[in-house]
Amino acid sequence: MEASSTSASTSSEGSLRRRAPRMCYCPSPQKPVLVVSWTNNNPRRRFYMCPNYWIGKKCKFFQWVDYEICERGKVLIAEMRQRILKLQAEGCCLVDAGLVPCWLLLGCNFDGLVPC
């Protein structure tokens, strides 16, 4: 069986890469959106969900994209994420105090959090 005909393949990172689902199960089907989990149990783990979930329709469509991360990986990712958030906050303080120009920190944009 060729790789193109399978429903999953392995990326260079070793994570499961499932093909994007075409539609959810709502009465008016929507294209599922890709979301990244930042919970302690599933840090940085990607999944597809129905875009209607957050607007009260509560579609039950949910599909993981990646394999579950091992326990040690979960701890390390949580620690690194806390360090990043702390550094971002410190960077914002430096910008607010006028000690560092805002543009200098723009390259440190993690998860869409802009420091200034």
Automatic annotation (TrEMBL):
**Domain spans labelled GRF-type:** 24-68
Keyword annotations from UniProtKB, A to Z: Metal-binding, Zinc, Zinc-finger
State a single Gene Ontology molecular function: zinc ion binding
Q: Does the keyword Zinc-finger apply?
A: yes
Q: In which domain of life is the source organism classified?
A: Eukaryota
This protein's name:
GRF-type domain-containing protein
